[in-house]
Amino acid sequence: MASLLRRPQNIARSSRQVVEAARLSQTLARRPASLPRPLYAYARSRQYATKPEKDGKDVDQSKQGKSAKGMEHLYNQSSPMSPSQPPGGDKEPTEDTTKPGFSKLSPAEEKALLDVFALVKKGMPASMADDINRAMERIKREGLPTELRETIKEVQAEGMSPARAAKLWRLTTHMARETAEKTVNEKFAKKEEPEQKTTDEPGPKESGKKEESGDKKKKPNDMFSNVTEIKFDLSNFLVSAFVAYLLYRLIVPTENSREITWQEFRNTFFDKGLVEKLIVINGNRVRVYLHRENVSSLYPESPAAQPGFYYYFSIGSVEAFERRVDEAQAELGIPSSERIPVSYQSEGSWFNTFLAFGPTLLFVGAIFYFSRRAGSGGGGGSGGIFGMGKSRAKKFNHETDVKVKFADVAGMDEAKAEIMEFVSFLKEPGVYQKLGAKIPRGAVLSGPPGTGKTLLAKATAGESGVPFFSVSGSEFVEMFVGVGASRVRDLFANARKNTPCIIFIDEIDAIGKSRSKQSFGGGNDEREATLNQILTEMDGFNTQEQVVVLAGTNRADVLDKALMRPGRFDRQIYIDHPTMEGRKQIFGVHLKNVVTTGEDVEHIKGRLAALTPGFAGADIANCVNEAALIAARTNSDSVKMKDFEQAIERVVGGLEKKSLILSPEEKKTIAYHEAGHAICGWFFQWADPLLKVSIVPRGKALGYAQYLPGGGGDEVLMNMRQMMDRMAMTLGGRVSEELHFETVTSGASDDFNKVTRMATAMVTKWGMSEKIGYMYYPDAGESQETQLQKPFSENTAQKIDEEVKRIIMEAYTQCKQLLMEKKTELGLVAEELLSKEMLTRDDMVRILGQRPWATKGEFDKYFGGGRTGVEEGAGKNAGGIGDSGPVGGSGGGPPTLPGGLGGAPEEAAPSLYRELQLRSQEWRL
Ligand SMILES: Nc1ncnc2c1ncn2[C@@H]1O[C@H](COP(=O)(O)OP(=O)(O)OP(=O)(O)O)[C@@H](O)[C@H]1O
Fold first, then answer.
1. Are both 124 and 218 inside the same structural domain?
2. From the centroid of its chain, how far is CA 258?
3. Which atom of ligand 1 is nearest to the CA of 457?
4. Is the ipTM of this complex over 0.95?
């Protein structure tokens, strides 16, 4: 077409042919049998129009570039698919910038594209909008590839098919790439130009030349960074813009069809021989395809001249339609060999297609959306449905992230020594391997919450200087079966790529629970699959692979046996609550982070350690922080001992209840109740020494007495004397109420709970009752069998009840005896408590004199008190039952405990000791 436009004489000649043909066809069309003629005329006109004349001389020069008068509309290029040319045949053809193989946009197309571009540009940054403008300019200047337009035409006429969609995609991508490359080349050219000029410049700039040439060498790199940037943006933009345009054109088409009646069809097109073929759509509508060139000759203004446009009419039935067409053709005398072809098609609308796919699309969309949300909520990076099987483990770099060292982990020296071996294995594997030693694969760190298991694992990574993968057991658990196993695989695969390294699985009980225990009530396939995968992966290492797996759990007892066998988690490291010395060291670590100017830190550490039996490392860290907060509230320069004490009270007892107003009668009852506990604690030899007693309500308690269990030491065993003294002391509140008031209150309920639990344990677990003997009866919570059935007979149950009652009554008698003896002292303490609301150990010494029994350990060092090192032993017990009661029978020596004295601390009996010991720390009425 471009070459045609450059030869106006050709246009003039062909226009004459077309006019002639059109005129002829018009005349002939009126005659019934003239159907083939216009076709012939059309063929001629096309032939001449597309074939350039070799000899242009015979064209009338005066008419060069002009169309015949009255026929201008034939050349005004109004068809959307015609190459662009300014309207009006009189004008000189402008310079053609269309590339070979390209054709220009029609004004209508240009407008549509501009609309789409304007829509896309909205809300874009200015730089991108510029790119879009540039792209549009280029399209206007160079047109679209002819192949692309042909395909668009096909799509418009016959609909979209996968092959056409692929072709469109290929063409638009190709075009986008070309455009981007061109832009880049232009940029190169522009940048090189000024540089050339600089080098040409003579004179003093000569010296700068070398630098410039050096610069020039660098520039291609800079340019390259630009190149990729432009290429990416522009190509992406163009592809999406074209696709948007095509969709726009396909889904919201311009008017490309119109309904006509049978009569119109016959008179206007059929009888004039303009019909090329008929397609019956879905048996109820007929699409009329016309000889477009003939139509444009006859009816140049008609929309039917535009490509993609067609007429249609509705039919009642296919048979009736066929009959009518046959009759019409017979009337026109068209021989059967030249009859108009009729074909049949069934097709659905875009809307129907969309509706058919709608539910599927919605479903896929919903899955995608929710999986993305699930993904982004947790580990971040690997979100989305495709990232589901990816491990969520966080990798910490030993150089930047894991700064914890063994020095930051205080106490737990044995655990540290044990785990130190892993560090030396990772640092110097050769030492072990040359002796043929197999390196342990992993260790389970178990113990109560907050005792520093995670911290120890981090310190191991920090010391060994290897990458550290940290993941929580619950992160493997997903609602889809197989995801957990796939995450385990991914985690270990990652670890193997980063050897030597440490994997730390926190709360491993989330996936490592014993399989037999889980199966109760249905089982859990997903968890089992995940566990099996861990078992396989841990077996799958070869001994050379330096991957150490550490796991943390609070419940080592529920873990699957297979997980704990040697070759998997070879070592089990139990981390208990820290001892007095351990607490001291942990306080040392955390006190470094707060300002304690002017304080004797050594003394503070010791005193705080003595004040916080049963505290885990996390509690200690919290306490120190609370103390700093309290100090900050009072605008202090440094954190003082009193701040720490307040913090401990707050951590253990809760907030002071200032809003709770008690009546004078209630206050008096509370004061006598607490004084009863205090007197017992003071005068019973084996009871816990009193530290502080208060009637200020705190948390749930109306008053409290604070003791130091075990005399500030770290005993894990209790003998019968201690138990009896503790029970008697616990009953002191109620006994005091009985002695001083006409009636008693409900305030002793928690005391009774503790006493009953302890007495029951003495009878059913610790073999401290002659009637029951050396038996162990598990609680309902301890095993599944006991949940349904009691492990003893009715007769034994009765005996247990009797024994428990007897022991409690003995404790009661012991307590009452003491409080009646010390009624005056009790009154003094209670009245002082009423007036001061809180008494310390020093107040007690002032009122009652020195405690008759010395305390053990370092208690006196930090809390005053004259005597130390008083011998323990039977006979010095003021109200003890070691030598008076029938229970025990061992002459006051520590009873032998069922479950093994030296057994692991998680054994039932010692853990109960621990619990009772901790409970004595609680505040009580
Ligand atoms: N031995 C210790 N030395 C110093 N700080 C400690 C120690 N133990 C615990 N802590 C403090 O307690 C915090 C919590 O400890 P960590 O997370 O290691 O406990 P954990 O045993 O893993 O708890 P959980 O079983 O609940 O996961 C630590 O960040 C640290 O501040």
1. yes
2. 55
3. 18
4. yes
